[in-house]
Design brief:
The chain is mainly α. About 65% of the residues lie in helices and about 0% in strands. The relative contact order is 0.02.
């Protein structure tokens, strides 16, 4: 610390005085970094002074002698460095607010110091000091710079001072003005705008004023008292309790009755109490607007004294205006205190009182504060429960007025029991009430303590989200802004997401801290999302952040991200988008990861992969096709996990491959699976103790059975596995599993050992029992019947026909020709065709009559097709089974497969020597025309079979004559557009019909 500098440098040697100045300068340079205001200005001055140090050190070395000009220069330097040092110290420890409000004085002092030191440099006797030219040049240059230096208050500081001056001059007592001014001051000095921080600074500022008063700096104290009076209106300047005590002290001193205005308050012209009294040159006072109109009408004499007036002189009568305002305030304060009890009256009185209160509060900000201090808030909030919606509307308006820019009012509203709940209930009422409620809640949300309560009210966030989509632009904007304010809380953000408002959740998921990202992803994982929610989330960008989290080092972060993807991927279009975004590779890499710590992820990964696979089935034909599990290595690795993981994972993997076997590339997928030795694994899993794993294994086995070769079947399928399938069919409660087990019987190659094992295990009666009981009503009923009929086809060939027919299957098949699905009809017709092919050899010849035929009983009529004795069970006769009519009906259906199987069954009736009798039966059953119509089928196979049938039938003159003309046009059409064999066969029939001659080029 430098010793105090003496007031006159002449009493000490020059070198000592200069050394003291240097020491002071160095202290200033250091202390300038710690000033609380105008740091840039102090730094600028410190830089000038620091450049002065080498100059002063040079003078010290020269051990210069005293001279008048040198003494004057040294005296100025010592005085100004001492003053600058004191200013720096003051600005390092005094209240920031005090320093800000003195910023203009500080700036002037800095500028004066700079110019004084410049003057000191200019009077140095440089010519006699024997200084180097560089030192002389530096002194001259520094003197010029410091002389020109200008120190100014910052724009923000000037704005604050203008606001203060304006508020003092206009006697502004509005709380909102003071609050805004406090915020401006806080921003200008770089302190928090929180209420507690502002109050602390304000108290320090008042303490500085007291110190100024003690130092007898009266002018400064008076000026600062005016500033304190202005700022005391701010919420942060005093606690609500202090304001309340001050208010009631004043109010209780006023009495309870309003006072009449003094005569001097009235304008002599208008006879009304004046609002802006002005004094004329005659010394009389009038309302400004009234006297200005008097002059504008051409009058130049005083209305009272009739003396001549200087019309340019109108002086505000501040004293009278202050008296009028004090009288008004007194009466208003008494009136506000007396009105509260009226709010407990009938609806009409309540509405009238609310209207009066609203008018008062809108007149002056101070009136609002008095209403708050009179504790109107609890009474008003209770009125929100009123049945009268006009009362509720007025109450909401009042609460909005009171809460605006008043933390005290906000806190009072919060403290009233169920107040926030009552306001939130208004969000669900009529539009006008909704708008007022959301405006009030938006204002309340500006205060942190209240904000914590709003989001916790049941239904609040849902109602706000609904309002954010309102057609009312203002209500929508307010709701969105309120949601923004409530987004400080993770719990509120989650509630918003549950209401389909994902903006803030996605912001946190993308840019929040790690723990917050985990929370948001976990919320997405747990939410019960609708399909619309899932679609919206991917549309607004949830996928990218979730995929990024899959690469996070934290295993728990990966876990929540995977669970969230699992939840979102259940919507097919989302699954496709995930595949396009590369989710498949990332998920597979995690699933195949060798670390045991990743095992906990397997279940959710496998389920997500299953969803992605399912999404590929929903692709539109006009979209670019999305492929999945294209790499053989991925297929083999994924299927290998079936034997190594828990049941839940096994189920998802099995379902994934089951889905892929139904996709457009199903043949390729089946081939890959068979290559990966899936068959023995699936056969083993058909005995798994977990019924869900077993069911999914059976379903996948069913898909693969259709394309498996005989050698693979004989290698892996054993009699035991056959028995296991039959056991599943008999015992399972899963209709789809039973249908799939039936499908395995239907799809496996029809090779003798396999069929024999099925037969010996009792498959035919079991299958027929399912077909016969008619109790299947579940979603897989049709699949079960289709596969059951396909399975029974295995036992309708020669070796197994008799026992199968005896079990009563033929009538069931005939019935299914009428009521089954297209595939059921096709398979039933195929089974009947196989039965019917054996009928000629099983039809018994009719017995001859004995004795004289005229006395013997009439013989039994033989089968119209087979000529012998036929039954459904003994000869499998289609005529006896009444199958002809339903088979003919199927010929008219659009499915080529069903038509062809039905035609095959019908054509067994005209084979060989049965052409005549069979054709007659078909003619009687009206089957010929449907056969002709099949010539127009898009199926070449069906066309060819129809042509072969007609070629034989038209050999019969009767049918040629009856149906030839009907067949002519379709046949001609085939000769023109058919392929080689079809064209030739059609031409041959036309020759039978004498349309073409035998030498035609068509042959």
């Amino acid at each position: 610390m430098a010793v105090d500098l003496v007031s006159s440098a002449s009493s000490v040697p020059a070198s000592e005085a200069l050394s003291q100045a240097v020491e002071a300068i160095l202290e200033i340079v250091v202390a300038a970094n710690n000033v609380l205001v105008k740091k840039d200005s102090f730094t600028e001055l410190a830089n000038y002074l620091e450049r002065l140090v080498p100059v002063l050190n040079e003078l010290i070395k020269k051990n210069v002698d005293h001279s008048e000009s040198l003494n004057n220069a040294i005296e100025i330097l010592c005085r100004e460095t001492k003053a600058a040092k004191q200013l720096v110290l003051d600005c390092s420890k005094k209240s920031k607010v005090y320093l800000l409000l003195n910023c203009q004085t500080i700036v002037k002092r800095l500028e004066a110091t700079s110019k004084e030191i410049s003057t000191a440099l200019s009077i140095l006797p440089l010519a006699t000091l024997d200084l180097s030219s560089s030192i002389v040049e530096e002194i001259e240059k520094l003197g010029e710079i410091m002389q020109r230096a200008e120190f100014r208050a910052a724009v923000s500081e000037e704005e604050v001072m203008k606001k203060i001056e304006s508020g003092i001059q206009e006697r502004n007592v509005d709380r909102s003005y003071a609050n805004k001014l406090m915020v401006l001051i806080a921003e200008a000095v770089g302190i928090s705008t929180e209420r507690s921080a502002l109050k602390k600074e304000f108290e320090e500022f008042k303490s500085e004023i007291e110190n100024a008063r003690l130092r007898k700096e009266k002018a400064e104290a008076i000026q600062m008292d005016q500033i304190i009076a202005l700022l005391e209106r701010a919420d942060a300047a005093s606690s609500p309790k202090e304001k309340e005590m001050k208010y009631f002290t004043k109010r209780n001193s006023l009495g309870s009755q309003p006072l009449e205005p003094l005569q001097s308050f009235y304008c002599p012209i208008t006879r009304d109490v004046m609002m802006d009294p002005v004094e004329t040159s005659s010394g009389q006072t009038f309302e400004r607007s009234a006297i200005e109109k008097w002059f504008a009408d051409g009058n130049s004499l005083c209305p009272l004294t009739m003396t001549a007036l200087d019309t340019s002189v109108l002086r505000p009568n501040k004293t009278l205006r202050q008296s009028i305002e004090e009288w008004k305030d007194r009466n208003t304060m008494i009136m506000i205190a007396s009105m509260k009890q009226k709010l407990n009256s009938d609806d009409e009185e309540v509405l009238h009182t609310l209207g009066e209160l609203q008018d008062l509060c809108e007149q002056r900000d101070q009136h609002r504060e008095w209403v708050i201090l009179e504790n109107y808030v609890p009474t008003l909030t209770q009125l929100l429960g009123a049945k009268n919606r006009e009362i509720r509307r007025h109450v909401l308006i009042m609460l909005c007025i009171l809460a605006k820019d008043s933390d005290d009012a906000k806190e009072r509203i919060m403290r009233v029991e169920n107040a926030i709940d009552s306001i939130v209930r208004s969000l669900g009422r009529r539009p006008e009430e909704q708008k007022l409620a959301v405006t009030l809640l938006l204002e309340l949300s500006q205060y942190n303590l209240v904000r914590n309560f709003i989001g916790k009210v049941q239904g609040c966030i849902l109602l706000l989200v609904t309002m954010s989509n309102s057609n009312d632009n203002q209500a929508s904007r307010d709701a969105q802004e309120l949601l923004e304010n409530l987004s400080f809380s993770d719990e509120n953000v989650i509630q918003m997401a549950k209401a389909n408002y994902f903006k803030h959740l996605l912001q946190r998921l993308s840019t929040g801290p790690e723990e917050v990202k985990k929370t948001m992803a976990g919320s997405l994982a747990e939410m019960e999302l609708t399909d619309h929610n899932k679609e919206s989330l991917l549309e607004v960008g949830a996928l990218g952040p979730l995929l990024d989290l899959l690469s996070h080092d934290d295993i728990h972060m990966k876990e929540v991200a995977i669970r969230a993807l699992r939840n979102l991927s259940s919507l097919p279009q989302n699954g496709l988008q995930m595949i396009r975004a590369g989710a498949e590779r990332r998920l597979l890499d995690l699933l195949f990861h060798p670390s045991s710590s990743y095992l906990s992820l397997h279940e959710d990964i496998a389920a997500t992969i299953m969803h992605l696979a399912a999404s590929t089935l929903s692709q539109d034909s006009d979209q670019i096709s999305v492929s999945f599990l294209e790499l053989d290595e991925d297929v083999f690795k994924l299927f290998s996990l079936v034997s190594l993981t828990r049941p839940a994972v096994q189920q998802s993997i099995l379902r994934t491959f089951h889905i892929l076997c139904q996709s457009n590339s199903s043949t390729n997928n089946k081939f890959k699976l068979i290559q990966s030795t899936a068959m023995p694994v699936l056969i083993q899993l058909c005995e798994h103790e977990n019924v869900m794993v077993r069911a999914n294994a059976v379903k996948l086995f069913c898909c693969l059975a259709e394309g498996v070769d005989e050698a693979t079947v004989l290698e892996h399928v054993s009699q035991k596995s056959i028995e296991t399938l039959l056991k599943i069919i008999k015992s399972s409660n899963d209709e789809e599993e039973v249908a799939s087990a039936m499908g395995i019987i239907s799809n496996l190659p029809e090779i003798q050992p396999i069929t024999k094992w099925f037969f010996e295990a009792g498959a035919p009666p079991t299958i027929i029992n399912f077909l016969n009981n008619g109790k299947q009503n579940g979603p897989h009923k049709n699949q079960l019947i289709e596969n059951s009929v396909g399975a029974i086809c295995r036992f309708t060939v020669l070796e197994w026909q008799k026992s199968t027919a005896e079990a009563g299957v033929i009538p069931i098949l005939v019935k299914l020709l009428s009521i089954g699905t297209t595939l059921t009809k096709q398979r039933a017709a195929r089974a009947l065709a196989q039965f019917s092919a054996s009928s000629p050899g099983l039809s018994r010849p009719m017995p001859r009559r004995k004795g004289m035929w005229c006395f013997s009983a009439p013989s039994e009529t033989g089968c119209p097709v087979h000529g012998g004795f036929c039954t459904t069970v003994s000869s499998f006769c289609l005529v006896q089974a009444e199958a002809i009519e339903p088979l003919v009906r199927i010929l008219g259906e659009p499915d080529p497969g069903a038509c062809e199987a039905s035609l095959d069954a019908i054509l067994t009736l005209i084979e060989g020597e049965r052409l005549q009798s069979g054709s007659k039966v078909l003619g009687d059953a009206n089957a010929i025309k449907p056969i002709i119509q099949l010539l127009g089928s898009p199926s070449p196979s069906l066309q060819e079979k129809s042509l072969n049938a007609l070629e034989r039938i038209f050999r019969l003159i009767e049918f040629k004559q009856k149906y030839g003309a009907f067949a002519q046009m379709p046949l001609v059409d085939l000769t023109q557009r058919g392929n080689g064999s079809v064209k030739s066969l059609a031409a041959r029939i036309l020759a039978h019909l004498n349309v073409l001659h035998d030498q035609s080029s068509y042959f």
